[in-house]
Amino acid sequence: MDVLAVPAFDDNYLWIIHDGRHAAVVDPGDAVPVLAALQAEGLTLAAILLTHHHADHVGGVLELARSAVSDAFPNIPVYGPAREHSRIKGMTIPLHGNDEVKIASLGLSLQVIDVPGHTLGHIAYYAADQGLLFCGDTLFAGGCGRLFEGTPAQMVQSLTRLASLPGDTQVYCAHEYTLSNLKFAAEVEPGNEALTARILRERARRERGEATVPTSIALERATNPFLRTGEKEILESLQKAGRLAQLDDVSSFAALREWKNTYR
Ligand code: ZN
Ligand code: FE
User: Fold this and answer.
1) Could you read off the pLDDT of 148-207 as tens digits, one per residue?
2) For residues 195 and 187, what is the distance between their CA atoms, to the nearest angstrom?
3) Considering every ligand atom, which ligand is closest to the CA of 26?
4) Closest C-alpha among 132, 114, 111, 133 to residue 122
5) For 223, left (φ over 0), alpha (ψ -120 to 50), or beta?
6) Catalytic residues, which ones?
7) Taking a C-beta distance cutoff of 8 angstroms, is the pair 212, 172 a contact?
8) Beta bridge partners of 133
């Protein structure tokens, strides 16, 4: 199984999972580059997988399903979060946490994980046997999504669930936000050597024009401040900034998320 990055808009990645013949696309915010990539690679679209209702993730669904080449992709199933069904045009198969998605032509099986926070219905797709996670705007490389609809407590639970996956799980998030995320990470945890090393590595990759995604669960556990809110240095940084009201995981996560919202 291969995963192909299709860059879109300013900093989105639309992901195409394929075996050289069949493909599933995750969060096609724009149909045009997806169709171009499918054509270039000679792939037949077998399924569309959506993580949440934001336009940069679902904007290309109708066009993909009804495009001029739709004869080549008849009746593509469009999977998405049940709780956002009414907000996503073209979604045909609503999913709940712990559901299993089987894409027969690809031989791909994905577990649905509920990850509310960025939006209330946000879901992630986890292929355990392949070690692949597609998590939309929940866990980012070096950061996490903004809380547009959910509470800090929900996001902490969602991130904790994702962080508990095997360390070598490849994490395919939906945006290239890594360098700005890591800049903030270094502000709150300057003594983290793994983080310092990562920043140099990711900067070099961007300078070469490469994506910094996928990342891995192990690397996120070691360097992502939003998975490390209990670390002494992070708590001290929050305290020094006058942002820590209470000493518990949800409060420190909420304080960190709020700080990041205005950090430049
Ligand atoms: Zn979003
Ligand atoms: Fe997004």
Assistant:
1) 999 999 999 999 999 999 999 999 999 999 999 999 999 999 999 999 999 999 999 999
2) 11
3) 2
4) 114
5) alpha
6) 52, 54, 56-57, 118, 137, 175
7) no
8) 126, 171
